[in-house]
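Model: Ready when you are.
Researcher: Fold this.
Model:
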Amino acid sequence: MNFAERLDGLIGAVSPEWGASRKRARLDMLAAQEATRLYEAAETNRRTSGWNRRPSGANTDNARGRAKLSWAARDLVQNSKYAAAGVRQLVATLWGDGIAPIIVHEDKAIRQRAQDEWDRWAEGKVDGIGDWYANGKLSVREMIVGGESLNLWKPDANGPDGHVFGIEGEQLDTSKSFMLQNGARIVQGVQYGSDLLPEGYWLFDENPHDRIARMSFNSRFVSAQDVDHMYERLRHGQARGASWLGAVAMTLKDIADIEDATRLREKVQACLAVFITPAEGQGSPLGTTSTQEDDGPGDLATETLRPGLIGRLRPGEQVSTLNPQPSAVTVDFIRQQLAAVSANMIPYHLMTGDVSQANYSGLRAAMNGSYAMIDDWQQNEIIPMLVMPAVRRRMQRLYLETGDRRFLDVKLDYARPIRRLVDPIKDLAGEVMEIRAGLKTLEQGLGERGQNAEEHLQRIKQMNDMIDTLGLALDSDPRRVTDSGVLQAAAGYLRPQGDN
């Protein structure tokens, strides 16, 4: 044991906290030395002198910048056409007309009753204004822009969880962040028990940034049983979410500034001006020269340009013109920056509307890459944090009303928003091949298009029965005719040779 270790032991006996801090500092120093030997990014030299590499924690970073980040994102969505389009397209792709739950249970009567009960409630005014799917759209949008959204559940006249009200993350009391007894804690308004499971949320009655005279700045505790909190977790232990626009906010702001400068340059270039300098003691040949010695507020002294300007100058005054030249790389630079932004949000052509350089292969590659992110967000955030808790609450209420515990055992599948095809003929041909090869089921294919497989097939059967009853022969009927117009022999519609 060396001297430093013996000293740490003596200090720890007198002050355990001081001794622990010394040991921690020594371990951090050793780790830094090891990292410096192994990684260039861990070195301290000229190349890394301006690099902010401070230690951080998920909740520490959020406490420092989450609020201002959400304010910046809201400003961009309000004033940047690219941010507004990107968020709208992302919401439409993630949520669309809604992620519809499909109840699954071996007992058909239980399945049908549960599905009917959910559909009846979800298609009503769940918050007094819109249905469940309208509330879900706002929740998804708020998660993207503000970083998180919360659903507050309240009872109605018939029982618990009858109404749901979406609220923004600003209503969480960030100032409440401290340790409680027995290992419990509050982290930026989210209270955890000693088992590290959420116990509840400290919420303001109103958004602190709304101008409401009766607003109270005292938050109140709301049990986690009445709140569904949706946000994207990027680190273990993260209590709250940050705006998805964080990584691209500065780029979007710079693009807006560049476009404003370019727009002003084009306006200046469009200004054709004529300057007249009369000879000493002579008036202007184009009209009477003003007898006023001082320029008024609307005269040339205001130093402004406008199209068609004719300016009269005093004898002896000279004029030099500013002739800005267009930059040949501005458009390419903005396009490259927008491509980088779209890589973090939604494909470039959807965010900008620019398909001038697009082709089928490029569009399909962009959409396929986007689908992977869409699956991630839907499966890991929206469904488990927004949709599934809502269905479970309604099934719990149905159990309380009927006393049948089977409603608590139902399983869930989901009909997601329809994914639009880049080229329907090519894309559908590939999908048919996947189904025929057994790589996916028809039910999966219908689910990807936002269809309930059982209901969809029932509608097909009803339509086929109607066609048969009316004695119709349609070219679109695959039971009778192939896609090339040939009668289907396997279905029995080709008569044997010699048969009258």
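Researcher: Now this one.
Model:
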Amino acid sequence: MRDRLTITISDINKTRSYNVHQVIKKIVVYAIIFILLAFILGGTSIWFLQTRVEQLTDKKEAIKSEYKKLLNLNSVLTKQINEKAEEFESISERVEDIEGLIGLKFDTRLTLNEKVDIASLSAKEKSIILEQIPNGYPIVFKGTTGKYGWRKHPILKRREFHAGIDLRAKMKTPIYAPANAVVEYARFHKKSGYGNLVILSHNYGFKTLYGHLEKIKVKSGDIVKKGDLIALSGNTGLSSGPHLHYEVKYINMPLEPKNFMDWNLSNYDVIFEKEKKVKWQSLVNLINHSHKVQQSLQKAQK
């Protein structure tokens, strides 16, 4: 045929002939298919990317909204913290007023030369202070079963502040007064879960508390001296086993009992470094002043 190119391919089996226009036709078809596939793939990619951009935009807006909420929450919390700080400052001022009423507030008009140096106290003066303020172990120490501070209650299974220390003790272990005191409370206490309870009111704002007792050896209003037997340990009240719950308080503020249990004449100065909640300088001054007044009265009577 005229104007037509024929390509003939022969092998041992047969002979094939191709017209050039058929080859071009196939190339055009393949090209169209490739372009369609590329168009579909490109469109799909663009749709996916656009959807992803929209999702990221929505996520960005959500993060902005959450950030604004956190800013507002931070503002509220900051305001509450400031309010609590003001309340704490107000309470601190009230405590100082109470200290002043009971004679514990230090007279700032005294010069440094007039202040008593705690470290230079005589053995006699130290012994007098140790008779007035709780010190030493109220029982023979066999270890602890519960520490002072935040903990999970062994029975109630909730996190709460443990205001005392749990001392390991068998049933009916003797308990002794750690300082001179008046018995403020000595009977079963329903509300606290302490069972049989003894509270000793010591001089200068200190108190000690003894919970879960088996037997109480004193009565409310009794006056006890350091070392007197006040009770026997037990397992009464909300208790998981025999032990002594022991607390030390200063103007109804809980203190770390271990600091006072380890306090004695041989390590007398340690308590002043470990326990910062007590204004020791003014307290020691007051005790020494009371002792001197008592000595003067005794001399006058002679």
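Researcher: Key takeaway?
Model: Confidence is low (pLDDT under 50) at residues 99-116.
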